[in-house]
Design brief:
Elements (H helix, E strand, L loop, with lengths): L1 E9 L3 H10 L6 E6 L4 H7 L5 E10 L3 H12 L7 E7 L2 E3 L12 H4 L5 E9 L3 H10 L6 E7 L16 E10 L3 H9 L10 E8 L9
Helix pairs in contact: 1-3, 5-6
C-alpha cells in the first residue's frame, strides 16, 4: 500500500522538498503551482498567505513514508512559516506500460465503509491529459480538472515514479461515483499514450464528505 505525501510551500521551494525527500529514499515527485488565500491569522499558523505556492506530490511505499516525512520536518524546522505537510492513503495505483493494477489493500472493515465517490488522479506528460479525459468521459465520467505541473527527476536520478524524465506534466483530477472508478481507470490505461512504460501514472483516493455547492 502507498501514501500520497503533499506539501504546500512557498513558490520555488518545491525542489527543496523533492530533493530532501529523494535523499531520504523517495523516487521523485510532481510540483504544481497554486496560490494561498489564507487570512493573516491563519498565515501565522500555516504560512499560507495570499501568494504563489508550490504544491508537491510524492507517492511513497508505506515503509518509506516515516523516514521521508521525518526528514522533511527536520530539514524545514528552521524555516519560519514555511508551509504544511499532510498525507492521503492511495488506493488503486497504475503505472503506464503495466497491465497490473495495484490495489490499495483496505481491510474488510474499511471495504464495508467504501466512500460513495473516488478521486482519480492522472499524471501524464504534457499534452495527454485531454486524451485521458476523453477516455474517462466515454467510460462514464462527467468532467475533470487539469493542472499544469512539472516533474523533478534529473539525469542520473531514479526514474520519477518510474516515468521518463520529461519536465512538463499534466495533472488530471476526476471525481467519480465509486462504482464507475474501475471502468474509467481501465479506459485511461488502455490509451495508446499510456502503453509505453514511463509515460504516466494513475492513482485513486477515496473522497469523503462529498457535497455539491450551490443550487441544483
Amino acid at each position: 500500500m502507498s501514501k500520497l505525501l503533499i506539501s504546500i510551500v512557498p513558490h520555488n521551494c518545491g525542489e527543496f522538498i523533492t530533493d530532501t525527500a529523494k535523499k531520504a529514499g523517495a523516487g521523485g515527485g510532481t510540483i504544481a503551482m497554486g496560490r494561498g488565500t489564507a487570512t493573516n491569522g491563519i498565515l501565522q499558523l500555516l504560512g499560507l498567505g495570499d501568494s504563489s505556492k508550490d504544491i508537491v506530490y510524492i507517492i511513497l511505499d508505506n515503509d518509506k513514508y516515516p523516514s521521508v516525512k521525518d526528514e522533511l520536518i527536520k530539514a524545514s524546522e528552521n524555516k519560519k512559516n514555511f508551509g504544511v505537510l499532510f498525507s492521503l492513503k492511495v488506493g488503486d495505483f497504475v503505472k503506464a506500460g503495466s497491465k497490473e493494477i495495484i490495489k490499495g489493500g483496505n481491510s474488510m472493515a474499511e471495504n464495508e465503509k467504501t466512500a460513495a465517490y473516488q478521486m482519480i488522479n492522472v499524471i501524464v506528460n504534457k499534452g495527454y491529459a485531454e486524451d485521458a479525459m476523453d477516455a474517462a468521459r466515454r467510460a462514464g465520467a462527467g468532467g475533470g480538472t487539469i493542472m499544469g505541473a512539472r516533474g523533478t527527476a534529473k539525469e542520473g536520478d531514479a526514474a520519477f515514479f518510474g516515468m521518463k524524465i520529461v519536465p512538463e506534466k499534466d495533472m488530471l483530477m476526476i471525481l467519480v461515483p465509486s462504482d464507475k472508478k474501475d471502468a474509467i481507470v481501465e479506459a485511461i490505461k488502455a490509451l495508446p499514450c499510456f502503453a509505453e512504460a514511463g509515460s504516466g501514472i494513475i492513482f485513486c483516493n477515496e473522497a469523503q464528505d462529498f457535497t455539491v455547492l450551490g443550487k441544483k
